[in-house]
Write a structure and sequence with these properties.
single chain, 321 residues, alpha/beta, 10-stranded mixed β-sheet, 11 helices, 21% strand
């Protein structure tokens, strides 16, 4: 596997109908030409991704939206103008050009403009959009560095476009529309409060349903291999635990207990944006230590704390979704 900052090399591999990894501001993605069915099927195979889980289409600019989406609600246009490029995915009625294998045979397409300099340069060079689900095996922790991708897929993809550490560190927020009104289907790196400043109050349907509507709705996701618990009172869980080798992941306050052999604070300064950015890389670090269990606590259900709590729940063995 080649790891490089060379955008021309990334374009070469994609134009040769290969799957590669690319950086975005959210997480790294496994990328392929949306019009190459074989390459898209390779993404599903490499990830072990269920075939009923549609892919997000990444486009170079808002001008491209009208090629791939139709009947675009007014509030969708407002959101795209406010937050693209950025960590917002819109679920819209697709045009005939969008292949069914991208959307799991649904009439809607998930689409966004990523906000990463290298990937925007790459998209400018290509004459096709790319599908790019997160570059991790299904249900595992999302990759936020090129090294994470390398560890996951050493011999399975030829190239990683190395864009450094992902700034946001959480997947995009996914917004769909019912009767023209926005519905948040996946909380993400774009906080609900920021969306509501643009379009008013939004509904949230952030749970798995019998028919997966959009990417990222499976309730079990983002999981370390180590048993992981997220609770309101980690001190009590650790005190009562029989385990003697525990890793604790906290926001900005440590816990004193001899059973905790390692602990990580997501933001010693108490900055929720920094905590969100550090979440996945910290989970991966904790997992590599091979403790008996990993323990974390819930965050305040506000701003990006809502997204962090969502990811903690989905990753945990005591999954409460």
């Amino acid at each position: 596997m080649e790891k490089s900052t060379n955008v021309n090399s990334a374009a070469y591999w994609l134009e040769k109908n290969n799957v590669i990894a690319i950086p975005t501001e959210t997480v790294y993605g496994l990328a392929a030409n949306i019009f190459d069915e074989e390459a898209i099927q390779s993404i599903y195979k490499i990830k072990g991704r269920p075939s009923n889980n549609p892919l997000i289409v990444h486009i170079k600019s808002i001008k491209e939206l009208y090629k791939y989406a139709s009947d675009i609600p007014v509030k969708a246009k407002l959101l795209a103008n406010a937050f693209w490029p950025g960590p917002l995915t819109l679920v819209l009625n697709k045009t005939a050009i969008v292949p069914n294998y991208i959307t799991s045979n649904k009439e809607t397409v998930a689409i966004r403009v990523p906000n990463h300099l290298l990937t925007l340069k790459l998209l400018e060079q290509l004459d096709f959009p790319i599908a790019a689900p997160s570059a991790n095996p299904s249900n595992r922790i999302s990759a936020t560095t090129a090294e994470h991708v390398e560890n996951y897929f050493q011999n399975k993809i030829p190239f990683v476009l190395d864009g450094g550490s992902c700034k946001d560190g959480l997947e995009s927020t996914i917004v769909g529309f019912e009767m023209g009104e926005p519905i948040v289907y996946r909380v993400g790196a774009l906080a609900i409060e920021r969306i509501e400043k643009v379009v008013g109050k939004v509904s949230i349907k952030n749970k798995e349903t019998s028919a997966v509507i959009v990417p990222g709705m499976f309730s079990k996701h983002y999981s370390p291999l180590t048993p992981f618990y997220v609770v309101n009172s980690p001190e009590e869980l650790i005190k009562d635990s029989q385990h003697q080798n525990i890793v604790f992941i906290g926001f900005n306050k440590r816990i004193e207990n001899d059973k905790i052999k390692n602990q990580f604070l997501l933001s010693e300064k108490g900055n929720i944006t920094e905590a969100a950015s550090n979440l996945y890389k910290t989970l991966l670090l904790a997992d590599e230590l091979q403790p008996e269990i990993i323990v974390s606590s819930f965050f305040r259900e506000k701003d990006l704390g809502i997204t962090i709590n969502d990811r903690l729940k989905r990753a945990s063995i005591n999954n409460q979704n």
